[in-house]
Specification:
The protein is α/β, with parallel strands linked by helices. The protein contains nine helices and ten strands. Strands 3-2-1-4-5-8-9-10 form an eight-stranded mixed beta sheet. A two-stranded antiparallel sheet has the order 6-7.
């Protein structure tokens, strides 16, 4: 005789919004002197996170950190990677591979969050590029076999991130990765920024379309003179 499995003996599913406390993590931002990196560093520092911004030049990083103020330090990329618990990759696409190859040792054992969008531009506007590995995040995972790679923070306006008059950034952050523990950490970090919410969006094999969507947002922004973001509907927190 076959009996139905009851709720009492089924494994309990974790609440998707039961996220860890990440307030004590040190967040490193590679490419922290660029617009996107500076914006993320500013928002995390404003939320009370300890932030280290990295650059090829320690002097440039220190100068940018001084401009951003309390809670932000500057260092060269290697020192930033060594001293951070979570490292966000916000470098230009054309420097993505070389930067990560040079930091393989420093990033070993770290949670690395890739937010790079491989894009090309021509007279018709922005268009998506597809790396041989499938996406920037998958390239990062291939280059950093001893790191834990996630993908997030692709669709954020650098202008809004750096606008000190804005208390909140009204957007969701699509988070991708292979480990639920890691994506939970990234979702929790996104939620530290007022107005943001991190939403799990699949494994790294799905990162290409998330990165590519930025080309569409650039077209939206140009047509409507906006700084558009994304909201995922019917997902209740």
């Amino acid at each position: 005789m076959t009996t139905a499995t009851t709720a009492s003996n089924s494994p309990a599913r974790k609440d998707p919004w039961d996220l860890p406390d990440v307030s004590d993590l040190v967040v490193g931002v590679l490419g922290g002197t660029g617009d996107q990196g500076r914006g993320l560093a500013y928002r995390f520092a404003r939320a009370g996170q300890k932030v280290i911004i990295g650059s090829r030049s320690a002097e440039r990083a220190e100068a940018a950190a001084a401009e951003l103020g309390r809670g932000v330090e500057g260092a060269d990329n290697a020192e930033c990677a060594r001293r951070s618990d979570v490292v966000i990759v916000a470098v230009p696409w054309d420097g993505h591979r070389a930067t990560l190859e040079s930091l393989r040792e420093e990033l070993a054992g770290k949670l690395v969050v890739d937010c790079v969008n491989p894009l090309g531009f021509d007279k018709k506007g922005a268009y998506a590029l597809k790396p041989e590995e499938g996406s920037a995040a998958e390239q990062a995972a291939a280059l950093l076999p001893e790191s834990r790679v996630a993908a997030a923070f692709h669709h954020l306006s650098a202008v809004l991130l750096q606008d000190e008059t804005l208390e909140a950034i009204d957007t969701d952050v699509m988070v991708l990765g292979e480990s639920r523990a890691d994506t939970d950490v990234v979702q929790a970090l996104a939620g530290r920024i007022t107005g943001m919410r991190g939403v799990y969006a699949g494994r790294l094999r799905n990162a290409h379309q998330v990165e590519s969507l930025v080309a569409n947002l650039i077209s939206v922004n140009r047509r409507y003179q906006a700084h558009a973001g994304l909201r995922v509907t019917d997902v209740q927190k």
